[in-house]
Amino acid sequence: MNFIPLFNKIEMFFKTGHERSVQAKKNIIGLVISKGISIIVSLLLVRLTINYVNASNYGIWITLSSIIAWMSFFDIGFGNGLRNKFAVAKATGNETNARIYISTTYAILSIIFTIVWIIFFGVHFFVNWSYVLNAPREMADNLSTLAIIVFSYFCLQIVLKTINTVLIADQKPARSSYLDMAGQVLTLIIIYTLTRTTKGSLINLGLTLGFAPILVMIISTIWFFRNSYKQYAPSFKYVKFAYAKDIMQLGYRFFIISIASIILYQTSNIIIAHLFGPEQVTPYNIAYKYFGIITMVFGIIIAPFWSAFTEAWTKKDILWIRMIVKKLKYMWIFLTICTILMLTVSDTVYKLWIGNKMAVPFSISIVLSIYVIITVWNTIFSYFINGIGKIQLQLYSAIWCAVINIPLAIILGKNFGISGVIFSTVILSFINSIWITIQYNKVISNNAVGIWNK
């Protein structure tokens, strides 16, 4: 069989079309490879980690990580603010401004997270972590130590992840994804080594899961700013605090949206732990990771388009935006079918993946499958809205959802179990899908006025 014509067609597919689309296609292939490996590594890490520290301690770890992750949003939106500002500066050929934005972001994030770390270090001694995590009292000292270890790593990561933001803003998300993949692979290697040489320890787990990505980010930051991004390398000379206001005009809104999103999407772990015990966090997270494959796949596809939308909007290329959104809608239909198929075989997959150590109720899988379908739809339009910076309506909606979610999740959880906790997020996500679709149609048709255009 002659494969040459097929290879020629594939080659032409990746070389033809708008320059922005060609770059997106190449990024998608790179993301498929890196995310594919990341998915495999993530699945292996779940089973390996549960075997290392047991299901109950794994649930404690997941809950603690969720709480600490909230702290990461104290970057006050500088990451997303930089993402848009760098993309605009590069699109208009202003290298000096691009370097100022990068240097200023590094400086301010370093200051912010040094202060936040000092405050956390002083306060965490007075926090009863065993109560917060609903864990046995005898674990209090270990959990206190673990909390400061994990938080220290998070603070470092927020600053060092600026290189990922630059890569994504430059429409090179595949390179950013390779860095994340390298961190995961290194983590897997170290965890596997621990299972062979030590007894299960949450402290060792925390040290490993923090150290690996930090090491990768330090090496990559030095590499990129000495080579392909040398002209944008951060420097004290280019730190201009006056530019912080420029970044923050957009960034503070991203910050509030991020905080609200954390409350909306990440509080489920804590609510489940307190209503049903930390061991019940584990089956929820197993199902979440399983159906998360869909959101990860779509994340691969849509990753290049946030900054691409920024560039296209800056250059008034409306036809290209419409074309891409139409194709993304077709992809949503395909992924919806895939999600339904995943639901039908979920019980079998769980048994093959985790074994008989943990049962995942089918009701959890049903609710999470609905959540994933809605999330993919919303992501299409949020990437466009975020890319062009018209996020005022999203800001108000995020705050409203954050206020409603916790009491609604508790009420539904008490009446319908773990599935009820998750269904709270599904309800609010569906409401968001209505207004965000309307806003896209108004903006792209140049009919947006008032709150729809801010």
Report on this structure.
The protein is mostly helical and 454 residues long. The chain has one domain (19-453). It contains 18 helices and no strands. It has helices at residues 4-15, 19-71, 78-91, 95-123, 129-132, 140-160, 162-169, 173-197, 202-226, 242-266, 268-276, 281-302, 305-314, 318-344, 346-354, 362-388, 392-416, 418-444. Helix 2 (19-71) runs antiparallel to helix 12 (281-302) and helix 7 (162-169) runs antiparallel to helix 8 (173-197). The protein is globular. The mean pLDDT is 83.
Quick gist of this model?
The chain contains 18 helices and no strands. By secondary structure, the protein is mostly helical.
Count helical runs.
18
- When the domains are counted, the total is 1
Helical residues, percent: over 70%
Question: Which blocks of ≥5 consecutive residues have pLDDT under 50?
Answer: none
Q: What is the distance, rounded to the nearest whole angstrom, between the alpha carbons of the first and last residues?
A: 57 Å
Radius of gyration: 22 Å
Percent of residues in beta strands: under 5%
Give the biggest sheet: none
Structural class: mainly alpha
| H and E string | HHHHHHHHHHHHHHHHHH
Note the overall shape.
Answer: globular
Q: How many strand units?
A: 0
Mean pLDDT across all amino acids:
83
Topology:
Blueprint: H1 4-15, H2 19-71, H3 78-91, H4 95-123, H5 129-132, H6 140-160, H7 162-169, H8 173-197, H9 202-226, H10 242-266, H11 268-276, H12 281-302, H13 305-314, H14 318-344, H15 346-354, H16 362-388, H17 392-416, H18 418-444
